[in-house]
Amino acid sequence: MSDTTPDQGWSELLFALPEFILSDANIDENGELVADVELPRGLQPCTRCGVIGLHPLHDWRSHTVRHLPVAGRATRLVWRKRLLTCLEGCGTFVERTASIAPSAVWSRAAARAAVAASQANIPIDTIRKEFGVGWNTVMRAVLAAAQQVAQVRPTRVGIDETVMTTGRLTTRRRQFLTALVCLDTSLVVAVTQGRDRGSAVRLLADHAPDAKVVACDLFSGFKSAADTLEDAVVVADVFHLVRLGLTALDEVRRRRQQQIHGHRGHRDDPLFRLRRVLRVGQERLGEDVIAKIFDRLRDADTDDEVAAAWVAVDLLRRMYQAPDRDTAHRRLVAFYEWAVTVDVPEVTRMATTIDTWQDEVFAFFDTRASNAPTESANVKIKSIRRAARGFRNCDNYRARILLHAGQPRSLPTTSRIRSYRFTTAA
């Protein structure tokens, strides 16, 4: 490959740089592909006065940049630039092209490939090692690409928080991010630092001022922030309410375990052995299985507090299985009556919380909105933090989130070179 090949097609074929001419290529001692390229002699605009013409040649300059790997081999481009003299007497200037920015350390194609890798949740450190550039170089390209993510104005949004810095191994306090997610597309609309009413108010006012539905967990700060919107309906998330019931059930079981045995659950303790099956909805169990579980609960807990909490959770689940708002209201009244009858502290506290959020609970049956898309986006956000081994800069974290979870993934489709063949067994 060391022979001179002044053919412009080779540059387009190997490096996707159609405007360049490949003059030489070789493999250096480090196993990298080094390609010497130059622009064909042609018209160039003066960088000072803007006059376009065939400016006289004054000297040559060399500009080395990183480019896309070729056949899995790291590639360097050595661009032999012409130093031209302006026809109007402005002085000298060097050639320019859209493929490589002035004084850049890598080509624009390499920068786009790095941004695509970041969008696929590949760590920045891995990307910069692959291209042989600095960490800040890759991060600047990612930040610039994040600013170009299309802004949307969703009408159905979900809001939730996630941890940015745990603070376990440092003296810093835990830091949180609040994310706004479109419920129709499951894409992250915006991210801000903080987990309070003020952060949520800014998110909604800047990115979803016309929202009609806002789904959130049982956090009063998010609810009061959503109330600042004129026509928004706040919906309490189904998952968090059911989890609230399961948490109350676990608390009752642990409390009774301590009262009966004087220690936490052991392997052979009856209540501890029932901990998993109690989290299963009764609608998924047969009648004989339910009767057997109640018999085991009566033997393990003579006060029937654990059994009463299990029934309360089942009543809460059945309320959400109602086909309409009126049926849900009747089932919720039955849940309240059961909570008053059994008089278990954990169940009473759960009923008090649900009564506080009753309007938001019934809003689910009008909108059928939940925070499931928000939790799905939260999984992507957490995967970014795990891949990067944590973040200290909120702006960098926000850019990675918007690229990975804030825009639809456009995966190119590759056509098959061989057709499918179906064979039948003899």
Counted beta strands: 12
Return the domain count.
4
- What percentage of amino acids are in beta strands? 15-25%
Give the rounded overall mean pLDDT.
90
Question: Mind summarizing the main beta sheet?
Answer: 5 strands, mixed
Instruction: Return residue spans where pLDDT drops below 50 for at least 5 consecutive residues.
Output: 1-5
Shape: elongated
Topology summary:
Elements: H1 8-15, E1 21-27, E2 33-38, E3 44-45, E4 52-53, E5 57-70, E6 73-85, E7 92-94, H2 108-119, H3 124-131, H4 135-146, E8 156-165, E9 175-182, E10 188-193, H5 197-207, E11 213-216, H6 220-226, E12 233-236, H7 238-261, H8 270-273, H9 287-300, H10 305-320, H11 325-342, H12 345-356, H13 358-367, H14 372-388, H15 394-405
Parallel strand pairs: 2-6, 8-11, 11-12
Antiparallel strand pairs: 1-2, 3-4, 5-6, 6-7, 8-9, 9-10
Sum up the structure in keywords.
5-stranded mixed sheet, alpha/beta, disordered N terminus, 4 domains, about 20% strand, about 425 residues, 15 helices
Protein described:
With 426 residues, this protein is an alpha/beta fold. The chain folds into 4 domains: 104 residues, no CATH class; 42 residues; 97 residues; 130 residues. 43% of the residues lie in helices and 19% in strands. It contains 15 helices and 12 strands. Strands 1, 2, 5, 6 and 7 form a 5-stranded mixed β-sheet that branches. Strands 10-9-8-11-12 form a 5-stranded mixed β-sheet, with helices on both faces. Strands 3-4 form a two-stranded antiparallel sheet. Helix 6 links the parallel strand 11 and strand 12. It is elongated and about 100 Å long. The two termini are 52 Å apart.
